[in-house]
Write a structure and sequence with these properties.
By secondary structure, this protein is mainly α. The chain has 18 helices and ten strands. The chain has four domains: 88 residues, no CATH class; 167 residues, no CATH class; 160 residues, Intergrase catalytic core (hpI Integrase, Chain A); 36 residues, no CATH class. The longest helix has 49 residues. It holds the Pfam family Arm-DNA-bind_5.
């Protein structure tokens, strides 16, 4: 059934939005069907009032682009009339909303296609810059390692490269912000990851975080692309289309496809949650669809040497000097809690005289940004004294003769095999030894242990400090001694400062 409808299209200048600098007002059109109307801007056309013929509804010849503008207006009128006719033929009744939706849909598809291309280009620029920045960071750290001063020519080259990267980063950030700040731009998962990387990159450039942390974050980026291709057959997905179940799907994907431990796989979900959390804080999304997903981490069965085994290791003489040196490094790490990076970067400048007049060692930890300062125990001082005149230490200005990480781990394996240890010797097990056998077993408060290990959060330290059965047994023995008398009777003791202090003896009848 054909229904006759009144269709009209009126073009006009919206003078209330006149640009004060240019004096131009945007051109609008009003689409009216049977009295119902909608107003829209004609994109790309802004005119001075004298350049618009309000009777003929055309741009005058005073405007240099009048021919192109008039053609655009004519095409717009033709397209809207065509969509009106098509909707009437299909639905019998047409509304302004239906006509505009039909007209704008192909335009939106073209816009999204262009956005996708620009997102991909930005992502490649981010990857390229981070690659070159990390290469530069490695060169910079090598040149300045252990307090060394680069040669003048090398220093000049490094500083020039640093300046170039700084300028490039500002251009990258500026171009990226044009996309990030565009409210009409469809925000996607991969765009959110690039936004987080750029934000963290700025913190690294400011010297507040380590380049190695940026490298870890960036290294996870490709995994998200692989996951989206595997699960959804796409390279990217709009954030508003993401559902809660994606978090569990990502976790399962990492565990099943890459044989990852759950704790490691969970870190990918945690980073993605951070991306969505930021999307809310910067106004991309109204809510975080992944917020309800709880990232839990299983308590790992960490192991470390007993104090008896450590003493036996310290006193053992290996047939190869290399193993003896690596043994000393491991013992030093075990009584200081230092990682391989801290060991390799420790210099004479890290020495301090503590408040007790004894030797302390200080190191600003890059990972947490916290200041880790601790007094050295005699066993650690003994090892430092042993290597103070070592040629390698003098040449590299280090406190200890640190080999490469690969050589260090290889020798630790040989040492463990020769000593018959069931526990794998690593810098991580050395830190566990410090947290438990050195600190916790000897009654050190958890907050002090956290400070010595360079932890900002007590929760991190609690991850290191494990239940010690021998310590539990000793504490329960103290409880038993306080509860029971010498004759084995249970005694309830009232505090001595009570005016009516007395001991109530309970006999247990067996």
């Amino acid at each position: 059934m054909y229904v006759k409808q009144e269709f009209s299209l009126l073009f006009f200048l919206r003078t209330v939005r006149t640009d004060k600098k240019t004096g131009k007002a945007p051109l609008y059109y009003q689409l009216k069907i049977d009295g119902a109307s909608l107003n829209r801007a004609v994109k790309g056309i802004a005119l001075r009032p004298g350049d618009w013929d309000n009777v003929a509804k055309l741009v005058t010849a005073k405007e240099p682009k009048h021919q192109a503008f008039n053609k655009k207006i004519s095409n717009l009128r033709t397209d809207l009339e065509r969509h009106f006719d098509l909707i009437q033929a299909k639905s019998e009744i047409a509304t302004p909303q239906m006509v505009l939706k039909a007209y704008e849909t192909p335009l939106m598809k073209d816009k999204r296609k262009l956005e996708k291309q620009k997102n991909f280009a930005l992502s490649q620029q981010v990857d390229d810059f981070i690659t070159r920045f990390l290469q530069f960071s490695n060169k910079w750290e090598t040149a300045h390692k252990n307090g060394r001063t680069p040669y003048p020519a090398q220093k000049a080259l490094l500083e020039e490269k640093q300046r170039q990267l700084k300028e490039e980063s500002e251009i990258l950030i500026k171009n990226a912000n044009l996309i990030f700040d565009d409210k009409e731009w469809e925000k996607t998962v991969m765009l959110g990851i690039d936004e987080l990387l750029i934000q963290f990159l700025q913190i690294v450039l400011g010297g507040e975080r380590a380049a190695s942390t940026l490298e870890k974050m960036w290294g996870r980026k490709n995994r998200y692309v692989e996951f989206l291709r595997y699960r959804y057959n796409v390279d990217d997905i709009p954030m508003h289309q993401v559902e809660f179940k994606l978090a569990q799907q990502l976790l399962t994907y990492n565990i099943s496809q890459f044989k990852m431990k759950e704790n490691s796989a969970m870190k990918y979900v945690q980073l993605l949650k951070e991306v969505f959390s930021r999307s809310v804080s910067i106004g991309w999304q109204q809510s975080n669809v992944l917020a309800a997903f709880t990232c839990h981490y299983n308590d790992t069965d960490a192991e470390w040497l007993s104090m008896d085994d450590m003493i036996r290791l310290k006193g053992h003489v290996f047939s190869r000097d290399e193993l003896n040196r690596i043994r000393d490094l491991y013992v030093f790490a075990s009584f200081t809690g230092y990682s391989y990076v801290e060991l390799s970067n420790a210099t004479q400048e890290d020495y301090r005289t503590g408040v007790d007049g004894k030797v302390w060692i200080s190191k600003d930890r890059q990972k947490t940004g916290s200041d880790e300062t601790l007094p050295l125990l005699p066993v650690a001082l003994e090892i430092l004294e042993k290597y103070k005149d070592d040629p390698k230490c003098r040449r590299k200005k280090t406190l200890l003769p640190i080999p490469t990480n690969a050589a260090y781990n290889r020798c630790l394996k040989e040492i463990g095999d020769e000593m018959g240890f069931k526990i794998k010797l690593t810098t991580h097990t050395a830190r566990y030894f410090f947290a438990n056998a050195v600190a916790d077993d000897n009654g050190l408060e958890l907050r002090i242990t956290a400070q010595l290990m360079g932890h900002k959060s007590l929760r991190t330290t609690q991850h290191y400090v494990k239940k010690n059965k021998r310590l539990l047994a000793a504490n329960m023995q103290n409880v038993e001694d306080k509860l029971y008398g010498k004759d084995g009777a249970l005694e309830v003791k009232v505090p001595q400062n009570s005016s009516e202090a007395k001991v109530i003896t309970l006999r247990i009848v067996r």
